[in-house]
Amino acid sequence: MEIPFLSLKDITAKYADEIHETVNRVVDSGWYLQGEENARFEQHYADYIGTKYCIGCGNGLDALIWIYRAYIELGVMQSGDEVIVPANTYIASVLAITENGLKAVLVEPNPNTLELDENKIEEVITSRTKSILLVHLYGRCAYTEKIGDLCKKYHLHLVEDNAQAHGCEYKGQKTGSIGEAAGHSFYPGKNLGAFGDGGAVTTNNKAMAECIRSLANYGSSKKYVFKYCGRNSRLDEVQAAVLDVKLRHLDEDNHLRQQVAAYYYKNIKNPDITMPTRLHDENNVYHLFPIFCEKRDALQEYLKNNGIQTLIHYPIPPHLQECYAGFWEGLSLPITEKMANQELSLPMGPCIKKEEIKYIVEALNRF
Are 2 and 341 in contact, with CB atoms under 8 Å apart? Predict the structure, then answer.
């Protein structure tokens, strides 16, 4: 048996007729940027997330960059201000901070939840701390009431990196609407994935929405008039149309992911394998299903030999990347580094078959 980590071909096939119809509509329209498809998707996604505004852009990294750039342009932040961010995140979260001349303050995760440890935040807050970038890593809700209280106490701007958590909730509220603004990625492998790169910002702040829309359009809100030194970062009509189709099926697909995860949690019994704390279904849309094993590399090779494709997220944490050499000299992050050395992501998605899940679990338990 050969089991891929994620089959994008199978996911597309589920909604092939709808996708072909909508793509053909865009092709026949002759309008490929900043048209009706983009406006329609932005409205539908804002309604889904529960915000007033959604601004499509080129990718998830740009979405986060524009949020912090907007804070600077609007006079809320300035170069050298500090942003607290989980140390175990994908590098895009950190790049968005440093790209804007802000200082990324790395905080260890809770090893059980894998998310930013709420009990380690207050000790790193200084007079220059202006924001917390909360990353809903792996599709798991990272928000807690304590984090919200800390933001109020210290007047911190809460921003969400919702790149992996489309459809995730906290007490009935969608992630992506909890903070002041949120960045979303529509990379093809995401729970809501396009046919290429794509991203969006959601917010209830009108000034921020207008600023970001201009920044992503060369800095212009009126043709040939440039208020900001912006860049070209727009969601094209084909991607918007495809995303609008897939958005209609997102909750159903997330439910299928939750069923796969439930089987993993119930049936993986190998004492050498550790799984993160199981959250309530509404709090986890299982973009990834990470497990941890001291013999991770041997386990991955064993699964490969049994026809099971796995991936490692993320083997080198941001503070150890060459591009950040010298940024955090002497910083000790043992939890983050242990996770990087032991993490392995199992096949996960809305198209994986029951017999495949059973085969994966039986292989894991034999290891």
Answer: no
